[in-house]
Specification:
Blueprint lengths: L9 E4 L5 H8 L4 E4 L1 H7 L12 E2 L2 H4 L3 H15 L3 E4 L2 H8 L1 E2 L12 E5 L5 E4 L13 E4 L3 H8 L4 E4 L6 H9 L3 E3 L8
Parallel strand pairs: 1-2, 4-9, 7-8, 9-10
Antiparallel strand pairs: 3-5, 4-6, 6-7
Length: 191
């Protein structure tokens, strides 16, 4: 018997699907965005999250310095004619900035967001409990829960590059609703 997904709406965590995945699944079924609070209400005895400081990942393992990777991405932005790129895929951010954490049990990538401007220093949003004791690189550290407020201010009168393969549906929707000009193609960078 064939399953007809169009018959029932399916809820999804709006931060979990990328814009590309959302486009694929909405062709198959009716999607209804849910947020973290909806899911939290179902898991009443959920253990408290534990946070661990973000640390530097040694260049001997990373292969290339944080500054060199950032400069490469900034040159890519310049060639594409965009003012900066917003990243919300944690593994890619950890790779780009040569950072690690053990907050999430399955991956050494801390749950972060980043903005890399065409010129200037990158911004990294992380939970305050994860901020390192010592400053890591030339990074502007900001509170995790301020990302959309900050990005709406940062991106005024700018063109923002969002990677369709990695940006979450909720962030892309937020940028579009705020009237932020977005260039939404896959980033041509080594990962």
């Amino acid at each position: 018997e064939e399953l007809n997904l169009k018959d029932e709406p399916i809820g999804f965590l709006s931060t979990a699907l990328t814009l590309e995945q959302y486009g694929f699944y909405k062709e198959l079924c009716e999607l209804r965005a849910m947020d973290e609070t909806c899911l939290s209400s179902l898991w009443q005895d959920r253990p408290a999250k534990k946070y661990y400081p973000i640390s530097d990942y040694p260049i001997s393992f990373a292969g290339k310095s944080r500054d060199a990777k950032i400069q490469d991405l900034q040159m890519t932005c310049q060639k594409a004619g965009v003012d900066g790129v917003f990243l919300n895929e944690s593994n890619g951010i950890a790779w780009l900035l040569n950072i690690r954490s053990v907050t999430r049990p399955i991956t050494p990538a801390p749950h972060t967001f980043a903005y890399i401007p065409q010129k200037g220093k990158p911004i990294l949003w992380a939970h305050r409990q994860e901020w390192p004791k010592d400053v890591i690189g030339d990074i502007d550290w900001r509170s995790y829960d301020q990302v959309m407020i900050d990005m709406q201010e940062i991106a005024k009168n700018q063109t923002l590059w969002i990677d369709r393969d990695n940006i979450s549906y909720v962030h892309a929707q937020g940028f579009y609703e705020a009237g932020i000009k977005c260039h939404s193609e896959s980033l041509p960078i080594e990962r």
